[in-house]
Amino acid sequence: MVVLVYFSLQTSFVQNFLARHAASRLSKALNTEVRVSHIDFDFFDKLELKGTLVRDRNKDTLLYAGVLRVNITDWFFVKDKIELKYIGLEGTNIFLHRKDSVWNYQFLVDYFSGPPSAKKANPIELTLKTVDLKNIRVLQQDEWRGENLGLSLSSMHLETDKFDLHGKAISIKELAFVEPVFSIYNYDGLRPPRKRIQNDSIPPNDPEHLRWNPGKWSLTINSLTIKNGAMRHDLENDRKPYYYFDGAHFLWGKINSKFTDVKLVNDTFSGAINLSTLERSGFEVKQLKANVRFHPEAMEFAKLDIRTNKSRLRNFFAMRYDSFDDMSQFIEKVRMEGAFEDALIHSDDIAYFAPQLAKWDKRISISGKIKGSVNNLSGKKLVAKAGQNTYLVGDFDLTGLPDLDRTFLDFTANDFRTTYEDVKKLIPELAGITEPKLDELQYLRFQGNFTGFLKDFVTYGTIETALGTIRTDVNMKLPDKGPQVYKGTIRTEDFDIGKFLNDRNMGKLAFEGDIRGKGFSLHNLDATLKGNLGFLEYRGYTYKDISVDGQVAQKLFNGNIAINDEHLEATMKGLVDLSGKVPVFDFTALINNANLRNLNFTKDELDINGSFNMNFSGNTIDNFIGTARVSDASVFKNGQRISFDSLYVESSLQSNGNKTITVKSNEFEGILAGEFNISSLPDAFQTFLNRYYPSYIAASKKKVDNNFSFFITTRKVDDYLDLLDKRLKGFNYSTINGRLNTRDNIFDVDADIPQFGYNKLGFYDVKLQGRGNYDSLSVSTAIGDIFVNDSLHFPGTQLSVRSANDISQVNLKTSASQTLNRADVSGEVQTLKNGIRVMFHPSSFDINEKQWVIDKGSEIILSRELVTTDGVRIYSGDQEILVTSAPSSIGKGNDIKIELQKINLGDFTPFFVKSNRIEGLFTGTVEVIEPFGNLQVDATAKAEHFRLDNDSIGILDLVTTYSKKSGKVTFKATSANENYTFDLAGLVNTKDSLADEIDINTTFDKTNISMLQKYLAGIFSKVDGKATGKLQIKGKANNLKYIGDVSLADAGLLVDYTKVYYKLKNARVLFSDGLIDFGKIQLEDTLGNKGELVEGKLYHNNFKDMAFDFRVRTNKMLLLNTKGVDNKIFYGTVIGKANLNLTGPMYDMNMDISGEPTDSSKFYIVTGSGRESAEADFIVWKKYGKEMEAYRPYGKESNLTVSLDINANNKATAYVILDEVSGDIISAQGSGNLKVRVGTNEALSMNGRYEIERGFYNFNFQAWKKTFKLMPERGNYITWSGDPYEAQLKIDALYEAENVKFSDLLSSGGFSVTSEDVKHYRGKVNVIATISERLTQPRIKFQIELPENSSLKNNSEAQALIQIIHRDENELNKQVSYLILFNSFGPLTAAGSTSNNSSSFASTAFESLVSSSISGFLSSVLTNEFSKLLQNVFNDKSLKVNLSASLYSGTNITGESNSQITLPDRTNINLSVGKSFLNERLTFVVGSAIDFGIGSQQASTFQFLPDVTAEYKLTPDGKFRITFFYKNNWSYIAQNALQRSGVSISYRKEFDRINELFRRKKKKELGVPPTVDSSDEASH
């Protein structure tokens, strides 16, 4: 039976029957459907169920299992250890559902739940080996909570190594999921809201309070893989998912991962993960590798390495929460914790979460720690880098993400840098802000704190930008609509506000102060500003120290401004309103000082100050209504005050609608009254002028209705005009008035202008009267003088013009001037549409005293349509200009032909050429072809007797052509004259900018080079020689190139500063671009000595910016050959060996000469004018004519410095001239080094010491000539240390008086001696003169000694007499005079004697004009001696005797040079006696002059010349005097006596400096033509 039952159960029929029966019973018990379609049970180890179905109580499928297979241990039911070898489940759907707290499977739980069974003694051990799941679908629909969870699997495979349920240990060898899909869908559930349970009730994750694994199971998974899985989460809402990552609708697909070493220890899962996935938005995680720890409070990823398409995160990341359920509220409840090290995040990856960064294209490097939830995130020690432009070091707290507009940021930036472009990509709204120019910031660097929202924040710190630095403590609001709002404190340093506000006039500023307002642009600005501007740049000037306190609203400012700048000190208070259609100004200002030049408002130095009171509206002169007043003002131009102290401008409307504009100042007044509109005034004048000249001036397109009068009167206004235009001068004390009435056809103007000028053109005494209507205009002008230049002006000019309908009758008359003697030109002028017609009436004019006549009826028409003339003939004697027309040979219409016959160039060239004298007779023909079309000019001419400056060239042939079409001028000049043989051919291109403008080829054949003199003036003169060769000049006009090869023969030149003439017999000069190379040239001086120019280069830029490099070497050559007329201080003749260098550019040329004498040489040092060297006062000089303008080849900027370094030896003799006229000269020989330096802009300086070894001092007094011998043993010298006049000298000189008697000392009777030797002595007495101190004012001390071999040398009485002389300086000077002049002693005067007026003698002994020589000293001594003698005889102290002498030389008088220093050849000795009356106000002087020749050939011309003078002081101080005189003088030139008598009045003034004579500033004159008399008399 048992066997039968066993085998029956093995049959499929029985098994399925039993299964259906069991299912039927279970269905009835559960009150639902339970069904098994097929069962296959293999006793006792296998089971297979198919089509298993379980429904819930709502008849919904709760479970459907397609196939369930189980392999189990044989006879498992009788064994203690059961092994489930295999469990397979396929095609299974599970649906879990609830609408309230009860799930649809609860009835199964209740049914199978029973009372706990008693514990078996030996529990069964169940193990599991393999599980396979395929096509599994699980859906948990929780409507009560509002969450649907879904899970689907394509397959799952599980293999275990250990499955110990009893030991709670499971070890899984492999767990593999294929295409698992997990989904969460959240929506509003049916469960009513519950009070949240505090997290404190949740036990912490520790072994004693396990939540996930309270049974403390042990689970290990060796390998867990997921292939092509997915995870989806959706939150129910009414919108479509975003195209970027949507936290409410995210889908992670293509999840492929592998977990290894997975362990469950207590509540903690751990393992290693390697995962990749792709989110719906396109964000891809290519790799996520980490060591994971997962427990109920956190997911931790250590050794994290996340890689996306463009990013990589490393180190550590964790998500912490109180419950895993918090993941559904990730933003608020999941607390993230990250520690990143060099993490790279690309903005493209961030853009999946923050799409506004999609175009940022930045790679960000992040290091630091981040902690917190998404909506409450903080970062510490964060270092972030984005490329090269954005860098961040700091801490932050973010509250409010992911909503950026509501995100609150508390950011501390230790260093934050970024760029405008980066920020614009982060906040695109910034691109729409055009005012201010945020893009000009370029970059930003911030150190400080940033607190607030992105559009409402407070920033405190330092911001550095490309425009400057800003230190802020400001609250800023950036609303979506409306202007920006701000409040706080700002400090700027060098901030470029001009670029920020896009205002070119403004520049940088420095500001510190409080600001509160809104808006930045001029259209919406409304701010209150109070602070200080350290500086502000405006129009190129930096204003400093500015205080501001006021309101700035849109284009309005109302408040106070104070400026305390170096060049602007001012205050302003009031309103400037530019916001309306018509600006309003209502303010007062006080300007203490404003330098407009330094403020870059004017080019000239202009200072103003004054008070300003403005109360007007308007932005044009037409709508200007109100008043503007300037008072208490001063204006200074270039330091000189301009006559200006007030200005008042008023514009008002009258009741009748007329307008009046009044302008008043202390120097001018003006009024404009009537019906007018300033902007239409040009149209009003155009309406009238069209009636007079309709061909030239078109009718106005605008109909105007003006009726107004104007009146202007000036006083001194030329300074004002200079402010407007430097070329405009004059208009002082002028009156201009007139009226214009378009209704009644009236146009009147009258002007009276004393003088005015424009540029160099001057007009004087101008009186103009104009009367016009719609029919005609009559203008009559009288001009006192029209000044063109020094050579051309038109005095007494009368100009009358009467114009109507294009016809004008013109008459011009002038009076005589120096060059233009007279002019009377009249004719009829017709204005044509494209030209002019002129018909001359009888006319003539004089040039250079030659009358030129214009034939009556001469007519010429010049217009585009017609060019014709019957002949305009202008002639003067043989000179003639004939203008005719003839049919064009190459074009349409007529050509103009101008024939010139023997035109005297000397009459015309002075008008135009100042630097050269050009003379000659010019004859030729000029043809003007198609003057209004393709203009061409052909000219052929010959200049006879052509002369350029001092060079008479001869005949010059000229041919030239100009073509407007090609823009080229070709010309050729030929000279076949002796010494001037050359030809010149060239081309000037005026059109082709790419080609050379000038190309000239010149050929020379023994042509005199003296014409080059003017270009070398100041350095060389007497340039002479013959040039042969070719020279080409080509290039742009401002950059010409000189290229050629020229040979010089028989050339020579004089070095101006040394006056040495050098000959250059043969030389070759090479011209190249910018260089003239003279090569090596043999030089020869006038004595036949030779030297060599070892290098000679002249650098130039089109003969400008010249530089020299010349070097000369010689062993013997004339180095210095100057005379007194060349240099009044140092001159002479020096022959020696030397090195001469001329180097440097023309603005700093240096001529260095170093050498030493090798042959007999001499040089002269002049100390100054001696007393007797005054010019002879009986010579009167006259000069005639007018000199031409001097030519300055190098301009004011040229400078030549000459340095002489002379090593003097005994081959050179030095002459120290104490008095050039009298011949007082020290001649000496010695040695030393002298350095002499002088230049065009540098005074003469000398340095060195000259040791005198031997020499003589020759002095002359009238006809006496005496010689002192320099004493060599005394160490004589002269030393210079800069100023030659400050030279120091020390010279001892000896004069030996012969046959001197001591008895002459005793002749006065006051002294006696007993020694017969003294009484009878006749022998030598030495006079020693010690000359010391300054060379120009030497101190001369005398000493009388007896010679060493004198018989009285040791005589006590003789020595006593000499000591008496030495004790009294006056006595010593007197005895020296006697010894030198007469070789004898004078009577000895006892000290204290009543006959000795020593005090008077001492006071006047050295009152001579110049006591720089012994001769001057002697003159003074003798004059005082004679005065004292007469005063004692007549007992009258007012008597004065004057003994003076003037020595003069014909060579000095006539100015002729003399090659030697010679003594004067004539002497004029003047002896006079003066007597004063009326308390010295009236003085009579009676005397005589004796004039005689010194030389033997002039000794016979002895003359006695009596003089009488009476002088009366008109004022007590003697400044004004009247003199009556009768004088006789000797005429050196006429060789006879001349008598003069007359009266003179004089003014005398003492002064220390020349400028003290001219304290009163001369009035500035405008271009006044100089008055040139026939003679310009100068006398001395």
TrEMBL record:
InterPro entries: TamB_C (IPR007452)
Keyword Transmembrane: yes
Gene Ontology cellular-component terms listed: plasma membrane
Principal cellular location given in the protein's record: membrane
Localization terms from the record: Membrane
One of the protein's GO biological processes: protein secretion
Residue ranges of domain Translocation and assembly module TamB C-terminal in the record: 1083-1551
Keyword tags: Membrane, Transmembrane, Transmembrane helix
Membrane topology per record: Single-pass membrane protein
Matches recorded under PANTHER family: TRANSLOCATION AND ASSEMBLY MODULE SUBUNIT TAMB
Name of this protein: Translocation and assembly module TamB C-terminal domain-containing protein
